[in-house]
Design brief:
The structure is a single chain. This protein is mostly helical. The protein is elongated and about 50 Å long. The N and C termini lie far apart (about 55 Å).
């Protein structure tokens, strides 16, 4: 079993989310996972070329 990534959790909560140490240490593991979940999904990259084409059709630039 891998060790818990405390450095990453603290960097996320203190740096990105700006939680106080008191609020960070009061989080349950489930709450910490819920905070991190949207950010980990966002790292999956941008939209696919097909999805980008769909979005460009729906919302064209108006120049």
């Amino acid at each position: 079993m891998a060790a818990f990534p405390w450095d990453e959790a603290m960097a996320l909560c203190f740096g990105t989310l700006r939680l106080s140490p008191k609020d960070f240490w009061a989080l349950s593991p489930r709450e910490l996972a819920a905070l991190a979940s949207p950010l980990s999904r966002a790292r999956g990259g941008g939209p696919s070329r097909a999805r980008l084409g769909e979005l460009l059709q729906l919302y064209p630039d108006r120049r």
